[in-house]
Structure formats: C-alpha cells, structure tokens
Amino acid sequence: MTFLYILGALVVVIVLLLIIALFLPDGYFIEKSAIIKKPCGFVMDKVADFHNHIQWNPWHKKSANSESNITGLAKRPGHKYSWKETNIGTGSLTLRDIDDKHIHFDFEFIRPLKTIARDNWLFEEWGTDETKVTWQNSGMLPYPMGRLMGYMIHKNLNRQFTEGLKNLKKFCELYEGTIPVRHF
C-alpha cells in the first residue's frame, strides 16, 4: 500500500511539473557589453577566429576530458568550432555571417540538452582606439526540461557572458602581436 502512495505522489509531482512548464518562458535572451581599449578590427579578429576565441571564452576552456576541432577558414562563414566535453556536453559554434560591425554565430547544443541558439556580436568605435563590444545570445528552451531549467540557464549564461567579456578585454588589451588584416 505504501508503494502505491509513493507512486501516486510521484505521478502528481510529475504532472504538476509538466503543467508548470507550460507557463514558463520558451526562450531566453542575454546581452552584455564591455569597452575594450583596442580598435574595432582588432577586437573583431579575436572573436571571429576560433584559434583566438578558445583563449578567452569561458565555454571553451580545455580539460583533460575534452575533444575539440576547428574547421573552415578563420573569419569566414562556415568557420566552425565543435567540442565534446564531459562537464559542458557536446556542441558546435559556426560562423554564419560577418561584416564590418557584426559577427553572427549559430550555436548548437547536442548534449546535455538539444537546442539551437544564436550568438550575435556588435562592434562599435568608442572614443579613440576603443571598441564597445555587445554580446547577445538567444535561444529556445525545449519543453519541458529546458523551460524548467530556464532560470538556472539564464543565471549561468549571465555569469559566463560577464566572465567571457572580462577575459576578452584582458586578452585583447594585453595582446602585443601585430594587428592581423581582416578578410571579409
């Protein structure tokens, strides 16, 4: 009899969670900005080339349990970074479009939660040899688990974007190499 009460309570909890998920947001949007003391083209190059990208982006820190691959020409549509990592899961980031002020990426997560997101960047001249960088990410939260985890996902992304822009700023401002030529 106790087993039936436990089973009944479990069914009620599951049904309640499914109903709650119906009323939760089905997507998210994150936007963060930073001022970097380097010219626009220089900063764009550090974002558009995954060989540099993996130096500052908090999502792509190497661990002993990770596999990654970079394909395609840097700073060109189709340039792709894919990963398989025990802690963050499996996915890819592909450069979709680039112009003199914007970079647009397609973000695909395969595991732990299958979803597709858009990663958009805006680079604006800001004062003398400074750049205002705006990083946006938006995506869908699949029913029911994505919606139930939406608050936690939003909170984690806010933290990671703040960390990522801080890392990008440090990486760019400490970089002493030559400014590469941009090819669009």
CATH 4th-level superfamily: START domain
Beta-strand proportion: 25-35%
Fraction of residues in helix: 25-40%
Provide mean pLDDT, rounded: 87
The number of distinct structural domains comes to 1
Question: What separation lies between the terminal Cα atoms?
Answer: 70 Å
Which CATH architecture would you pick? 2-Layer Sandwich
Residue windows where pLDDT falls under 50 for at least 5 positions: 179-184
Describe this structure in words.
- There is one protein chain.
- The chain has 184 residues and is an alpha+beta fold.
- The chain has one domain (2-174): START domain (Alpha-D-Glucose-1,6-Bisphosphate, Chain A, domain 4).
- The protein has helices at 2-22, 40-48, 50-56, 145-148, 150-174, and strands at residues 27-36, 66-71, 80-85, 89-98, 102-111, 115-125, 131-140.
- The chain has a 7-stranded antiparallel β-sheet with strand order 1-7-6-5-4-3-2.
- A hairpin with a 3-residue loop joins strand 3 and strand 4 (89-98).
- The radius of gyration is 20 Å and the shape is elongated.
- The termini are far apart.
- Residues 179-184 have low confidence and may be disordered.
